[in-house]
Fold this sequence. Notes:
By secondary structure, the protein is of the alpha+beta class. Helix content is about 40%, strand content about 15%. It has one domain (about 10-60). It has helices at about 15-20, 25-35, 50-60, and strands at about 10, 40-45, 45-50. It has a three-stranded antiparallel sheet with strand order 1-3-2.
Amino acid sequence: MSEVAECAPLYLTVEEAAAYAGIGIGAMRDYVASADPPPLLMVGSKRYIQRAGLARYLEDKQTWHYKASDGK
């Protein structure tokens, strides 16, 4: 019998994605319901957020960005 290595799931529930991102569930639900949602997988009426695309999506939604100490 082959063994499947335990690893992080590719997709997260809305609740898991909120916890992973460190934001509230309501905020994550708002992002998912928006006209520009994070990368999603729909299974019936369930929505699963792609783990790999979530950080990139939230970085694009930031209203400010860090600057390097050398001003670049």
